[in-house]
């Protein structure tokens, strides 16, 4: 580590830092995330307001940037109210369970290559593991306990329904999200985030594995419970979701921080696994020193910011979906599509890497995709029920219209009767 700096860190470069370097990197990561939440709230307000032709926060500080600071101070100093019926231990523990896994999940995100930090050569990443991506998925699953406990300990029906919604939603979309990573693992040959970034030296996986990237982006909104998939916090039917009984105090601030940290983690994982990580985009990558020193931190931050802007843009553009649509998309569309795509990628990867029979591999992939689509269309009961309900509605309208008396008292079909597909005119 003290020798010549390497551009690409590997698993062997981790675990050799002095204790004080590890502490410095942990503090820097904590400050980045904590200040990022404050800045992210202001940035989201300003960006959405400009999309809606408003000014947004513009009174507290320059460009209203101190508005989020004022909100944070207010929530930290506001009176902490405990409803009489809550389970006090779990009621206090739930916001902590929401926040801590989000901080831990971001620890496996690489910000840059090996650099010289205060005279010591160290990777710009807190920790890396042979199963780093699985660690991130595990932290996302642990945070669900915070949501469920927040709803259950509140002893409120609205909060409990919000917690149960979140558990079902995260379980559904974590399966699809995990499957979207399988193609990345096949191409990279590893689950280490630093080595996955190294595998994208020539081409980003967002280009090679477009279906996996699209599925991950959709699952990213479901995992972070962001619009249009913020069903655990449906204000219309659940008042405020699982945090209904939490007043605007420090506990509510932790819940909101956990939501933003999960959004940051999802954005960081998208940059790491699909957008080349800290590597410079083309044509900047043609510069020899673009991926050395501290420059990669800039490229990572630009990609991270653009990904977060996309999340905000979706929130400002799309409405909230119904809960049955949310679950149907996860179980009946994303998971079958992912399974078919994984089989196709495995077949093609076997041909490319192992130099197998190309005709057999391509034919097998096509057969797998066609068969998976046929099975999905055969068992797509949601669309079948919709067609049957629509047909029954049209037949009922025909029957009602045929009862209307015409001139002379004889029931005759109306002249302006519309034509519907699948139902003939009477």
Automatic annotation (TrEMBL):
Membrane spanning residue stretches: 20-43, 89-109, 129-150, 171-191, 203-222, 260-281, 293-314, 326-348, 360-379
Listed InterPro entries: NADH_UbQ_OxRdtase_su1/FPO, NADH_UbQ_OxRdtase_su1_CS
Subcellular location field: Cell membrane; Membrane
UniProt xrefs under PROSITE patterns: COMPLEX1_ND1_1 (PS00667), COMPLEX1_ND1_2 (PS00668)
First-tier enzyme category under EC: translocase
Region (Disordered), start-end ranges: 400-426
GO BP field: aerobic respiration
Gene Ontology MF term list: NADH dehydrogenase activity; oxidoreductase activity, acting on NAD(P)H, quinone or similar compound as acceptor; quinone binding
Membrane topology: Multi-pass membrane protein
Stored Pfam families: NADHdh (PF00146)
Secretion signal, residue range per the UniProt entry: none
Main location: membrane
Gene Ontology CC annotation, any one: plasma membrane
Record EC number: 7.1.1.-
Assigned keywords, A-Z: Cell membrane, Membrane, NAD, Oxidoreductase, Quinone, Translocase, Transmembrane, Transmembrane helix, Ubiquinone
NCBIfam families (UniProt xref): PRK06076.1-2 (NF004741), PRK06076.1-4 (NF004743)
Complexes and interactors: NDH-1 is composed of 14 different subunits. Subunits NuoA, H, J, K, L, M, N constitute the membrane sector of the complex.
Family: Belongs to the complex I subunit 1 family.
HAMAP family: NDH1_NuoH
UniProt function note: NDH-1 shuttles electrons from NADH, via FMN and iron-sulfur (Fe-S) centers, to quinones in the respiratory chain. The immediate electron acceptor for the enzyme in this species is believed to be ubiquinone. Couples the redox reaction to proton translocation (for every two electrons transferred, four hydrogen ions are translocated across the cytoplasmic membrane), and thus conserves the redox energy in a proton gradient. This subunit may bind ubiquinone.
Protein name as annotated: NADH-quinone oxidoreductase subunit H
Organism annotation: Nonomuraea cypriaca
